[in-house]
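Hey, I was hoping to borrow your eyes for a little while. A protein chain has come my way and I'm curious about its shape. Take your time with it, there's no hurry, and the full record follows here:
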Amino acid sequence: MTTVYNQIHDTLKQINNKRSAINIEKARQFAINNWVLVDYRNLQIQAGNNRSLTNKWIGPYKVIEAIGSHVYQLEVPEGTRWYNVVYTTLLKAFNRRDEDQEMDNDDPDVYEVESIIDSRKIHSVVKYRVR
């Protein structure tokens, strides 16, 4: 009977080791002063009427300190009701856009709108009358 228990114990230990190895591989590395997004689904924040339409990631937040190899302390605004130390699997790097989105003024289909006079909905498409 003890051999069966030992076999079960060894099998469960192997499975647990595989799972922890997978989690270590999934863990991301961040440098101090990097900007990151936090996974929203693990936090208990009031989401509004429809949780499925809310953003899955909140932020960006600045990394203040690395606590251990897989945990980071973030700079969060005052009044935030969640703890600012987060595990790496709940973080994602934030890529900031440096260049501004500019409209091409040479395009003949671009008009300057002075005011919107009227609007109406035709077959789920809103059309505007402009000046």
